[in-house]
Specification:
624 residues, 6% helix, five-stranded mixed β-sheet, mainly beta
């Protein structure tokens, strides 16, 4: 079955499209998996979602807002099948030893997360030295939507998109006039969360800005967390052919690692003080048969983690143009350039010794072709050539097909290659008491093939998605013993994951909705922080001014340690919330998590909190 899937998909041309997926406005509140007819309007090309061969999920800003969760990634972990994010406390993921925030999609992600690419408004988000995103930098306030590609997207995005892509799209002021939003909540363990935002639109000029703050004492000694972040997004329509846009975000967070609670004497871990920022400018064009964009981005960070000091950067240029010269045909041509690196020193053990002061660059070009035949069959394909200044050239093809036999049914098949470049940490940095770097490392590689069906039933009130996939990977980087019996990073690991994913959304009545998702992964080699089974189901009842939500999250056989000793955890959590619209612009709410006080652990040695309660209000006002 696996071989036939690969042969079937490999004979079909190349790729798909990825980043943006706008919701059908009539379904925006309840649609989680975006099965209904939507239009892909992201940073590459525009196409109906049913013509995209890979599996995607779209989480709307309304869904995120109604979760009353200040951190974005736990919301995605609940709502997206096959995606899981590790946690260790009330709020705050941390960095370095003992940190949570590991993202895995279909068992691919890495620890830390270097195999899932996070984008903010289409701009890559990962540390220049360590190569992974920082989970505490992504807040849930002022989000327009989040688009998740489950499976490799390296053809369009290059390295790090091996497991998938999470593209976070922030709000912008689309309607004329001004708007103001605010959210305040307080609860268990002296936890305070405040989020504000506002925008303005007039005569082709738009601006939207937000400021947010989280703090908590934590549920254990020395588990405090404090975060403040802000962002700005602006745009100007020069004329009917050209627009320009810019966005910027800054975040500072401080916290502490309480250490494992499995020892008789608990030893507190690292403290951290991290400041990160991002900025980007995009110039967009739209002619009758040509449209595209040129984007410049720059990310930077300053980190102090118990004596580990670093300054990193990640900047680049992305240019693409879509050509629409033939009926039903789109050809996308693109060029990407990225440079990442930084300087790091360790003062705790080595007296200020410089660990690294270097950078790596990547230059890539790609072509993608999409051909629609008789409005029912769509062939997608593409190929990328990516040249890394350290390990050399990588060729990345991908192919897919989408078929709509009826208006309510979509069948998809695809095969795609993913890859990840070695990080500067793995190539060059030697930490005390840690595995040695290896400048001879090669890129990690994987092949993903999948089949899926999307179906609408009961006059489009029930949306259903079912998919199966297989992933084979080689040259994965892991710690091993070299010929001199020295521990170092080597290309010695392999993966072979097969799985099933199910997602549904049902509008039972105008005031009663139900959504659920389930995923099962069979891993030949265990993957840390990845559950074998994941189930989330929630029901919402919203008569008039009230809104009641009850949800259940079940995790089975998540690996908390692997290697010589393997440990797994299974748990189930009940959550509930009630909100009341006191005024048209003002809502009160209260929510409880882990209502049955389940005792469980996700990060080994970090017992999660029991029942927690938060209460507060939200405010939303528009002036047209």
């Amino acid at each position: 079955m696996r071989k036939s899937n690969l042969l079937f998909a490999a004979g079909i041309l190349f790729l798909f499209k990825t980043t943006g997926y706008a919701q059908d406005e009539l379904k925006a509140v309840t649609d989680t998996i975006a099965i209904d007819e939507v239009v892909v309007t992201g940073t590459k090309t525009s196409v109906n979602r049913n013509q995209v061969p890979l599996t995607i999920s779209v989480i709307t800003g309304d869904k995120i807002e109604k979760s009353f969760e200040s951190s974005l990634l736990p919301v995605l972990s609940e709502q997206v099948p096959g995606l899981f994010v590790t946690e260790r406390g009330v709020t705050g993921f941390g960095v370095a030893n003992g940190a949570a925030g590991q993202i895995s999609i279909r068992g691919v992600g890495g620890s830390p997360t270097t195999q899932v690419l996070v984008l903010l408004n289409g701009n890559p988000q990962y540390m220049g030295i360590m190569g992974h995103p920082l989970a505490d930098a992504y807040r849930s306030s002022n989000i327009e939507r989040v688009e998740i590609i489950r499976g490799p997207a390296s053809m369009l995005y290059g390295s790090n998109a091996m497991g998938g892509v999470i593209n976070i799209i922030t709000k912008e002021q689309t309607s004329d006039g001004a708007s103001v939003q605010a959210n305040f909540q307080y609860g268990s363990y002296n936890t305070l969360k405040v989020a504000t935002g506002g925008g303005f639109n007039k005569n082709g000029f738009t601006i939207y800005t937000g400021l947010n703050h989280d703090q908590t004492d934590g549920h254990r000694e020395a588990s405090y967390f404090n975060s403040t972040d802000g962002y700005l997004k602006t745009g100007y329509k020069i004329n009917d052919l050209f627009t320009v846009s810019a966005d910027m975000s800054l975040v500072n967070f401080r916290g502490a690692d309480p250490g494992r609670d499995t020892s008789e004497i608990v030893k507190h871990g690292d403290t951290l003080d991290i400041f990160r920022g991002m900025g980007a400018i995009a110039f967009n064009n739209r002619f009758e048969k040509i449209d595209g964009s040129a984007r410049v981005f720059y990310n930077f960070g300053n980190h102090d983690i118990t004596g580990f000091l670093s300054n990193d950067f990640n900047y680049g240029l992305m240019i693409y143009e879509n050509l629409h010269y033939f009926t039903g045909n789109t050809i996308t041509l693109g060029v990407d350039y990225k440079t990442f690196g930084g300087k790091a020193e360790l003062t705790k053990y080595m007296g200020g010794t410089i660990l690294t002061d270097t950078s790596i660059n990547e230059l890539a070009s790609y072509v993608m072709i999409q051909q629609n035949i008789f409005s029912k069959l769509t062939l997608n394909g593409g190929i990328r050539v990516d040249k890394n200044s350290v390990f050399g050239t990588e060729l990345v093809p991908s192919a897919g097909i989408s078929y709509n036999p009826w208006n309510t049914t979509t069948l998809k098949a695809s095969v795609s290659k993913g890859f990840r470049s070695p990080t500067i940490r793995e190539l060059f940095i030697q930490f005390p008491f840690a595995p040695a770097p290896n400048p001879e490392l090669k890129a990690e590689k994987s092949i993903n093939s999948e089949l899926s069906v999307q179906q609408k039933l009961f006059k489009d009130k029930l949306s259903l998605e079912l998919g199966i996939y297989t992933i084979k990977g080689r040259d994965f980087i892991a710690v091993g013993m070299n010929s001199e019996n020295k521990l170092m990073f080597l290309n010695i690991a392999e993966i072979h994951n097969t799985g099933l994913e199910l997602a549904l959304n049902h509008s039972i009545t105008n005031w009663l909705t139900w959504n659920a998702n389930y995923s099962y992964i069979n891993m030949e080699n265990p993957v840390l922080g990845t559950p074998t089974q994941k189930l989330f189901t929630g029901i919402s009842y919203h008569p008039k001014k009230f809104h009641f939500t009850l949800s259940y999250h079940y995790i089975a056989d998540i690996y908390t340690t692997i290697g010589r000793i393997e440990t797994k955890e299974t748990y189930g959590l009940f959550d509930a919330q009630i909100s009341y619209r006191l005024l048209k612009t003002f809502n009160l709410f209260i929510k409880g998590e882990n209502l049955l006080n389940e005792q469980y652990t996700i990060n080994y040695g970090y017992t999660m909190p029991g029942t927690t309660v938060m209460a507060g209000f939200s405010f939303n006002y528009s002036m047209n």
